[in-house]
């Protein structure tokens, strides 16, 4: 029997994309032998309805620039093209149609996102459709185990843990740094730093 293709999905608001996202995606790609990682910027994030999210075009362009130099990374604007809130369940179903049944999808998340997993739209159906990798600090593994237990045997089969050093970086912190005129050098790729400056984002 031939091995199934493995494709990673890195979903996020990417407002802006930072090296925490990139380092995590690359670590999971290598650990799980993923053919590629699809970065999918959220269109209208369901959990960020009230906040001011930067227009999708800027977030998409920054994600393309940040991932361009990695031949295994690519950006799919499918959530940007969809009207209304973007739910992972719809995205995963779309990818299953695109890649067919002979592909295993691995949805990559950081610690915060994986802990919220039980609250995701149609999560019981979703967990039957794709794998999840929670990239988290060794110290947070126990919290992740509680999430796995919540889903019983399917959880053990579908939710994986990858211990990573987890860089203390968030887009929230980057936006605040820009607003306060502090440096974001080396926290985001150089191209993203220049783009933020040129477009006057986050000020
Ligand atoms: P914000 O502060 O606006 O919430 P964020 O930095 O958390 O932004 P998102 O776009 O919300 O970035 O996150 C997308 C995915 O990346 C989520 O799965 C999140 O857990 C993960 N992630 C975010 N920051 C890191 C990091 N420093 N290391 C590893 N994964 C991360
Ligand atoms: Mg976040």
Question: Quick recap of the structure?
Answer:
42% of the residues lie in helices and 18% in strands.
Q: Characteristics of this structure?
A:
single chain; 203 residues; alpha/beta; Rossmann fold; 18% strand; globular; binds adenosine-5'-triphosphate; binds magnesium ion
CATH architecture: 3-Layer(aba) Sandwich
Largest sheet: 6 strands, parallel
The fraction of residues assigned to DSSP E strands is 15-25%
The percent of residues in helical segments reads: 40-55%
Bound molecules: adenosine-5'-triphosphate, magnesium ion
**SSE class:** alpha/beta
Radius of gyration (CA) equals: 17 Å
Mean pLDDT: 91
Separate helix tally: 10
Shape: globular
Pick out the low-confidence regions.
none
GO molecular function: ATP binding; nicotinate-nucleotide adenylyltransferase activity
InterPro entries: Cyt_trans-like (IPR004821), NadD/NMNAT (IPR005248), Rossmann-like_a/b/a_fold (IPR014729)
Pfam families: CTP_transf_like (PF01467)
Domain Cytidyltransferase-like: 9-177
Care to describe what's here?
With 203 residues, this protein is of the alpha/beta class. The protein has one domain (5-169): Rossmann fold. Helices cover 42% and strands 18% of the residues. The chain is built from ten helices and six strands. Helix 2 (56-67) runs antiparallel to helix 10 (190-199) and helix 7 (141-150) packs across helix 8 (152-158). The radius of gyration is 17 Å and the shape is globular. Bound molecules: adenosine-5'-triphosphate and magnesium ion. Residues 12-15, 20-21, 24, 109-110, 112-113, 135, 166-167, 169-172 line the site of adenosine-5'-triphosphate.
